[in-house]
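Fill in residues.
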């Protein structure tokens, strides 16, 4: 297996990874020799290329431009996956970003000389610093409930959803209190024999106009968690669910009549300890995602609280490692800012290391 050396390896070519690539190139890192971007997908788009086809541009809760290239005007009924993937492809081409794909990073190790070894399924890279921008889409969260393995119907996660047609005539239980659960309920309820909405906590609908102040407050709450070494909560989870015209329509139709979380799953449905039972053919778990960081396990970055203690984008336990698209930067505008901040700190680190190396050799 070939081994290559660069100053910086970026893992992931979604919004956060492309932003980091732009700032690396802008500040003097040469594409291919100064930095490389490794992406596990077989084409541009990051997690967006996997979104369900019925998620259209007008249903996306905002998308912030990548640095120096405005997001294109697009018909509101176009597939968000198609539009964003095209935008990312154009961005990679415009700024000649050195994206290598499909490359799956398997593990990152620390070498005795202070560099990082990034092992992939195709080759090995050795770098002085690493920007991790792997997001969460590849790690769907499936909560455990008694009887789940006994269910005779179909179970799938938001990550598996491809549209409502496959639910036609089915009795569907949708689990989760987030934006995806509400959107998919709306689609599925139009074709299903019946839908039941359940969640562990009540949905947090908010009849307010979300402003930049609300966004900053939400990001601050998530940032406080990662500074304390706790696993990050989602920024969207902190902001709550906006009451849109579609939400009002679904309320009037009774689609959003939510039940508390069931206690167990039976072969033919879901049940509560109070005797309630709902028959089901399908359970759709809209239960979120976790940060895709397993490849960083050899570095032992996690603390006692189960999370990684962060200072901005920098991992406190290892200043060679920056996480973007993680915690407070897990949004399109947050990812842009995080990319710039990470590159600034990495340049300062590498400059400092170079000075120390020169002084030591005198």
């Amino acid at each position: 297996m070939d081994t290559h050396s660069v100053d910086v390896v970026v893992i992931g070519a979604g919004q956060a990874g492309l932003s980091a690539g732009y700032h690396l190139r802008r500040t003097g890192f040469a594409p291919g020799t100064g930095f490389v971007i490794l992406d596990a997908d077989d084409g541009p788009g990051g997690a967006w290329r996997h979104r369900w086809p019925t998620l259209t541009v007008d249903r996306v809760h905002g998308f912030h431009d990548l640095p120096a290239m405005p997001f294109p005007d697009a018909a509101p009924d176009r597939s968000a996956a198609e539009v964003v993937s095209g935008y990312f492809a154009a961005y990679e081409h415009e700024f000649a970003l050195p994206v290598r794909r499909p490359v799956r990073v398997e593990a990152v190790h620390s070498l005795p000389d202070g560099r990082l070894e990034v092992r992939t399924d195709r080759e090995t890279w050795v770098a002085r610093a690493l920007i991790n921008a792997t997001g969460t889409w590849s790690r769907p969260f499936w909560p455990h409930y008694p009887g789940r393995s006994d269910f005779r119907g179909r179970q799938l996660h938001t990550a598996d959803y491809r549209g409502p047609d496959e639910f036609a005539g089915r009795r569907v239980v949708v689990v989760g209190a987030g934006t995806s659960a509400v959107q998919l309920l709306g689609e599925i309820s139009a074709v299903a024999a019946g839908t039941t909405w359940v969640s562990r906590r009540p949905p947090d609908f908010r009849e307010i106009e979300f402003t930049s102040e609300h966004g900053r407050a939400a990001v601050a709450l998530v940032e406080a968690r990662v500074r304390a070494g706790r696993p990050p909560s989602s920024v969207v989870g902190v902001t709550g669910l906006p009451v849109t015209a579609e939400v009002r329509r679904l309320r009037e139709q009774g689609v959003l009549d939510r039940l508390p979380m069931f206690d167990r799953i039976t072969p033919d449905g879901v049940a509560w300890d109070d005797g309630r039972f709902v028959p089901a053919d399908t359970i759709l778990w809209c239960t979120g995602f976790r940060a895709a960081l397993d490849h960083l396990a050899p570095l032992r970055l996690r603390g006692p609280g189960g999370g990684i203690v962060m200072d901005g984008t920098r991992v406190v336990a290892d200043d060679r490692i920056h996480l973007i698209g993680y915690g407070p930067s897990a949004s399109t505008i947050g990812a842009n800012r995080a990319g710039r901040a990470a590159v600034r700190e990495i340049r300062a680190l590498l400059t400092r290391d170079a000075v120390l190396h020169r002084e030591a050799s005198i």
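Residues 332-361 form the longest helix (30 residues).
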